[in-house]
Specification:
By secondary structure, the chain is α+β, with helices and mostly antiparallel strands. The chain is built from six helices and 20 strands. Helices cover 17% and strands 29% of the residues. The longest helix has 20 residues.
Amino acid sequence: MGIRIKSVGPSCTIQDAGRLGYMDFGFPVSGCMDADSHYIANVLVGNDPKDAVIEITLGGFSCDFTSKAVVALTGCDAQFEIDGVRVPMYTAIYVDKGAHLRCGYAKTGCRAYLAVQSGFYLKNVMGSVSTNVKCKIGGYLGRALMKEDLLFFNSTEPNIKRVNNRSVKPRVPNSEHLSEAVLRVILGPQDDYFTEKGINTFLSATYTVANDSDRMGIKTTGESVESKAGVDIISDGMPLGGVQIPASGMPIIMAADRQTTGGYAKIATVISSDMPVVAQLRPGNAIKFEKVSVSEAVKIYKDRKKYLENISKLWKR
């Protein structure tokens, strides 16, 4: 069968690689906040890297297995246990029918991921099963998971031999990096809306992740970024990692559930390779922004892509 949810902590949703190709119709992409952890979790259990997983925010999740399974746990260190015994992360694990999986609250980081071999049996909406809570589509009834929800697997005959000994060394931000994360950015597309002082402030000040940050955007507090004559623009497309500066002058990093367009100037865009770091930021963490060139960003992207592809190649037959 599958799993029965027993607790969910602050928030748990079904997410995959995202609902691509519908932003022009007003539908956000959604998908996993930490794309690297999502990718690796699926590869470990032998799934397609784009398959759906459970995204667990800050821990507090637990479930009972109503059938045997092979699972992988990635992302932040949420101290996962199966039947009271700590289990390793970034490793394919066999789970017996009737087993109880639980996690505490994350020691560091913000989001963990649970992948199950064969994936979850869910309705596809516009090419994705990602949950968008505000639009009430995807996932489980278009909402966050709740206690006693029952999720079915696509197959109840897991093959542990296929993934036996699959384990990788995680490349996720540790507590030292998250205490003051350095996010690399490319300036623009509306950096000309800001004074030289404002841009210097943005690139030198330390910002703090605000309590009301969510999957839509990571809000910050700190030193205000000075504009030349206001920050209102004619609404245009909203890229992943776009850094909006509203009237308050406080940067907001656009995340997975970001709106499709926005009317505030974007001083910069966080490079895609650093968005998994953004996904693991929690309220109180410090952020600094570092300018890089497009060519540097491309090199960093290629290195990250090679790293993920090499993980997949380890077990290709």
